[in-house]
Amino acid sequence: xxxxxxxxxxxxxxxxAGDEAILDAMITSIRKLMPDAVITVLxxxxxxxxxxxxxxxxxxxxxxxVISALRRADLLISGGGGLLQDITGPxxxxxxxxxxxxSHLVGTPAVMLGQSIGPLNRSVTRLLARxxxxxxxxxxxRDEASALLLAGLGYPRDRIRVTADLAYAGIAPDKEDGRRLxxxxxxxxxxxxxxVSLRPWGDNRHLSVAGRALGKFAVASGCRLLFMxxxxxxxxxxxxxxxxxxxxxxxxxxxxxxxxxxxxxxxxDFLVGMRFHSLIFAAMGAVPALALEYDPKVAAAxxxxxxxxxxxxxxxxxxxxxxxxQDAWGKREATVSRLENLAAELRNRAEAGIAEVISI
Length: 360
Known about the structure:
Blueprint: E1 5-12, H1 17-33, E2 38-43, H2 46-53, E3 56-59, H3 63-72, E4 75-84, H4 92-105, E5 110-117, H5 123-132, E6 138-141, H6 144-152, E7 160-162, H7 175-184, E8 193-197, H8 205-221, E9 224-227, H9 232-246, E10 250-251, H10 258-266, E11 270-273, H11 276-284, E12 289-293, H12 296-305, E13 309-312, H13 318-330, H14 332-358
Parallel strand pairs: 1-2, 1-4, 2-3, 4-5, 5-6, 6-7, 8-9, 8-11, 9-10, 11-12, 12-13
Helix pairs in contact: 1-14, 4-5, 7-10, 8-9, 8-13, 10-11, 11-12
């Protein structure tokens, strides 16, 4: 039987824990189903990606290497994550749909896997989506809102399936490993503690607002605060700023893998999360959470997980966040068993989505 060659595109090799968790879970699942598959990842850091995951990797910005990989491939997997959106800039949609179009031109089928779609605010990106999305033979998405948007753009509804974020298909978190990492970073986790995931956004006013509310809540509840950068190049300074306003807490200072972050969060008593995958990791560890919404994908996670939200970060107020923290903290014990069952269901759905696309 011919060895299958798969090309995977996404936001890989850039140090974002959520995207790396997606890639890790995807590779692990593919190898279970297709042990002899040759996987080539389009990466910001090909050497790092190849070394970390034991795959082939080429620069995502090398036209020759990308075309060569696509010519030899049996399938292009576009995903997962929030790739097809124009809120972070104008280039994501042309890049990822351009890959789908290029794959079509060289005769290699393409599928979307584990993606969320939108926002698509620019007329040019909506036009590109209408023209090029149909070149992907299947769209396995991670939330219902994305399915509605995709169908509204004219993509055939019978080619859309909603499963779950691919990170759910990864290895289950290990709390003991997380505890050892915290000890190595001089964080005392013997008393109740709250993991906090923040990122820069807009005018960054939310960092001071969240910091003050979290500091006040930490004093009232007797909890410690651990600020967790998910993309160190962006988040570490944001976490330091919030911690400064809190007047208490610890900013995790070590550069660790997405699996390490998942293990650490699994040991928390509670999570306050802005990063999408901080909420996913919390759910995987059955850790109650409060979401801070900055993007529709976070709102979609809130709906899927049934977790409370403090609302959009641009409208955040210190008193409102403090009240939301009090309310969510008081209800945390009732949510643990529900999250355990839900995470298992979402894991099965994510694995089924991966199995579906590689069987094409």
